[in-house]
Design brief:
By secondary structure, the protein is of the alpha+beta class. It has one helix at residues 2-28; strands at 40-44, 59-64, 67-68, 74-75. The protein is elongated, with a radius of gyration of 22 Å.
Length: 76
């Protein structure tokens, strides 16, 4: 029975290490973006993700930013 507990503890430890490595990899590839009032942006429409037609653009017309809120949200 102790052998099973040791194996289980080792599996949990390996899983924890794997999660740490995956988080470090993910965090290295995150790029923050700054937006400014007057800047033109395109809006991503996630609802079009469900359609299988690859020719449909998921990006909508360019919008102009009129307000950038302190918590990172933008008003278009």
């Amino acid at each position: 029975m102790n052998e099973w507990k040791e194996i289980k503890a080792e599996v949990y430890e390996n899983f924890r290490r794997h999660k740490q490595k995956a988080k470090l990899f993910h965090d290295r590839h995150i790029h923050s973006k700054e937006f400014f009032p007057g800047q033109k942006v395109q809006l991503y429409d996630s609802k079009l993700h469900h359609f299988s037609d690859k020719l449909i653009s998921r990006w909508t017309d360019p919008f102009i930013i009129f307000h950038v809120f302190p918590h990172g949200a933008i008003g278009i």
